[in-house]
Amino acid sequence: MKKIIQLSVLMLFMMAATSCEDEDFTYPEGQVGISKITVYPTLTLNGDRYMVIVNKSVPFSDPGAIAKEGDTEIPVTTTGSVDENTPGVYTLTYTAANKDGFTASTSRTVVIANVDAAAAANDLSGNYARTTNGSVAVWTKIGSGVYTVFNPGGAPGTNLTVVAVNATGDQIDIPAQAASDGSPTSSSQESYNKAVSPPTYSWVIVNPGYGTALRTFVKQ
After folding, report:
1. Per-residue pLDDT for 32 more than 70?
2. Are strands 103-113 and 41-45 parallel, antiparallel or unpaired?
3. How many CB atoms lie within 10 A of CB 29?
4. Using 50, 70 and 90 to split pLDDT, how confident is the model at 37?
């Protein structure tokens, strides 16, 4: 029995060795066996993810993006536009395709705002807890009177970021925009009260995924 097992192992080894000798691992460039290799494009923004122009301080100039397929730079197509004479939140999307037609994209948010002196002097940045559930909205100042707000609805488990503008005095709002997940978002019934300690604010989030409740937050 031992000799039979040894002979079987030897035969298997010889078959494997013969199989390896017969296999040709020399493939045409860009292929492995019958599979084609593709290098997906990558995009890198020139400049910042958010660009803010307040009170027409400078003309808007799109710094664009760079796309590469491996080490080779490839063309970028830009969609969207910015009207620097009209306050608003604009999205520019940059797209590139590799030689096999696979695409990748990235985007930039451009904020055009008119902000008065009182609002420009404010700093509303910080963490605000929603009064009903303690979920935190995070305000980050990115320009005079302009903020990004993470979790603007105080909804646990969401990953949404919007741009909010404090254009005059203590007035706040979320201008109509495509939020970080692409959903159309704005606000209504906004108020900010910094006369109390800690400051509070309220608004209704206008977004297909949110209800119509007035949401109130207290600064932490």
Report:
1. no
2. unpaired
3. 5
4. confident
